[in-house]
Amino acid sequence: MRGYWLCDTHQGAFRIEMIRLAGRDRFVVFFENEALGASDTAEDALSRLVQGGTHKPSCGLDISRMPLPTALSGWTFASVP
Fold first, then answer.
1. Which of 4, 9, 10, 75 is least enclosed by beta carbons within 10 angstroms?
2. Residues β-bridged to residue 38
3. What are the backbone dihedrals phi and psi of residue 40, each rounded to the nearest 5 degrees, phi first?
4. In what order do the strands lie in the sheet with 24-31?
5. What's the pLDDT tens digit per position in 38-55?
C-alpha cells in the first residue's frame, strides 16, 4: 500500500513519505514541503526527526520543542491510490 504518514501541528504539517532517490526507495521527512532528511525506513526517519538528526526547517522552527508522536502509530497514515 502506497501512502505517507502525516502529523499536523499548530506550526505546520510534518510528513514521512517514500520517494525514489538515486535509484533507491528512501523515506523522506518533510516539514510543510521542505525536505529535512531521508532514511532507509519510515521508523528510522521518525527516530531521526524526534532525536534531532534531521536538518532544521528554514523557518527556524525548533523541532525538539514539538510534541511529535515518537511512534508511527501516533501519526495518520494517508493512502495514495
1. 10
2. 28
3. -75, -25
4. 34-39, 24-31, 13-21, 3-8, 76-79
5. 999 999 999 999 999 999
